[in-house]
Amino acid sequence: MIPELGHFSLVLALVLALVQAVVPMVGASRNRLTLMAVGRPAAQGQFFFVAFSFACLTWAFVTSDFSVEYVALHSNTATPLYYRITGVWGSHEGSLLLWALVLALWTVAVTVFSRHLPDVFLARVLGVLGWVSVGFLAFLLVTSNPFERLLPGAPEGRDLNPLLQDPGMIIHPPLLYMGYVGFSVAFAFAIAALLSGRMDAAWARWSRPWTTVAWVFLTAGIAVGSGWAYYELGWGGWWFWDPVENASFMPWLLGTALIHSLAVTEKRGAFRSWTVLLAIGAFSLSLLGTFLVRSGVITSVHAFATDPKRGLFILFLLVVVIGVSLLLYAWRAPRLAGGGGFAFVSRETALLGNNVLLSVASASVLLGTLYPLFLDALGMGKISVGPPYFEAVFVPLMTPVVVLMMFGPFLRWKGDTLGPVLRRVAPAFAASVAIGVGTAFAIGHATPRTVLGLALAAWVVLASVQQLAARLGERAGASSAARLRGIPSAWWGMWLAHLGVGIFIIGVTLVGSLNQSLDVKMRDGQRAELAGYGFVFRGVQDAAGPNYDAARATLEVSRDGVAIATLRPEKRLYRAQGMPMTEASIDIGPFRDVYVSLGEQLPDGSWIVSLYFKPFISWIWLGCALMALGGIFAAADRRYRRLAERSAPAGAARQAA
Amino acid sequence: MKPRSKRLVLVGGGVALLVAAVALVLNAFQQNLVFFHTPTEVVAGKAPSGKTFRIGGLVETGSIRREADGITVRFAVTDTAKTIPVSYRGTLPDLFKEGKGAVVQGRLEADGTFRATEVLAKHDENYMPPEAAHAVEQAHKAGATVAQ
Asked: What residues does the Cytochrome c assembly protein domain cover (chain A) (predicted)?
């Protein structure tokens, strides 16, 4: 009964989504307020029904209703309650339902925080979001109904994939989807602006906080995902350039370009048509990511669903979305020309460079991800594009991005003179080259890449300090507390996010240069050494979990004779599917992780143990956290809240600083 | 500078940047593509020597052997028609098993052994890596034509 209710409410949601897609759009084109007003309640009703449907599926999981096929395939009575709940989005059908729920949630958020938007504009935004909803709800109902019954019901479920039975998977998918799907709001704003022909600073100002919040979620989601890959896959790596990872990284790169280009559009009225194109691109890449992950067209360590029918549907959706929006763009964008002019040396140029480089980087990831698919589809052989390609492309493309990042904040909008800026930047630059070279030699790893990474990171940190000092120096005479309070939240956001990039580079560089690993055969009492750490193997005990049996090893870790940690890696066997799993054990430190994972047991009773020493790896996630925090500060800027009280001024000219 | 020539410089700079980026991407592409070959193709000498590539198929039953150090593993990958001996140093993925699909990446040694640097298995019990499935399928097709 409950699953049927869930199914019906999904159908009702689709009906309301259709209403939301059509009526306000018609109202906007005929300028009829009563029709436009339908958008808001339709969107809220749609959210109610999708949420109810989601609750029904969750209920089926909680009560282990194995007469529902999806539940039978991804849950088990022995599965702990929290993994039964997260099992809802553990595979294709449920994760699409989560997609639809998140989209409905964003739409409702738009209806709640939209009091300051003109009615026509809001009607079009909701209309576009409605169309996206229609696409996904239809996709769910036609190809991927999670409420499909299994008759007769199974006596026991197959259990959730053990890899997903992990705390990281509780929050990773919702965060990631909030990010992915959040770009649909930026997309809807862009399309609505194209339709109305109103693409001024006000539009950029409305769009900015939404885009930034979506970007924050995406950043956090990717960071949690890479953290999960690091400890859960048991191989001690954190980023593999796997197609599934690339699927979320591409929209992130373009989204990063978008939030910078929106800044230019808001402040200076420039880059308008480019910003629209980026908004379309970021959302298209989110859809493409969904397609790649959910269609099974790619070979990946963590691609899940495999069903060509579904792939075809998302591909169709993708073609419609990209095709229609590009047509609209081609028709409307020529009117957008103009905006504030700017000199060759200006903040606009720095941000333009950032945009071009980030877009090219995104395109290069796209090429590396899709090229094997094309060749395979054309029957021209099977190939794979591995990490060396991405690294060879990424370092040269991202280095200038970081360099521009150091110049940008020192440059004035519209025009500046190069000499004084160079003089301000030069000391930090010289110091960071010295620090880069010096540190690389000090750690005994003086390769070009290490020197480059360390120098760039040092430059980011030094320039950040310098920028803060300069900013505080602006209001001479005021008390230091007043000066701190005088800095807008958006500026702190930029500052934190840029600093986060520096911290991230330190992590990536040092773990890349200095990490060590050792696979070793061990038996009771035996000792191994790695990177100055001693590991003593203290045997293996049985350790049963709720739905698995495990062999748990004990390793005592010491350094210079001082005990540091006791690590307990496990080899689990999940009962329902008979699937083995490696559960690594990590001693996390601020400057290094010591990571141990248990391999297989050999006939002579000894075990294979993998030992890893990962210096500064936490800095990677710390850097991501700072970037996300920066995004929160940027989105929380008072300007956006003030705008809710009075309508935003139109025209870019008045915004010029 | 006149506005016109300024724009020219800006556009020219942008184009130059793009060209450099494309050159970079293509160059990286050329050097880092990893091709896939079935065991039958490798035996037929179609695989590149001295270059990294992938092979895939089933791990032959009864072929897994560990050397005394416990770390070096030898096994054979077969597409049911031809078999390639593989040696690998390191930990194997959880779902690596005899009779199951696997994909390995590495180089072919002069003695015909494939020295793997990476071993990939799928993380789902019932799922065979598509490349491994492809290899077995190709071998079956070839076998069928010969029989006729």
From this structure: 89-295
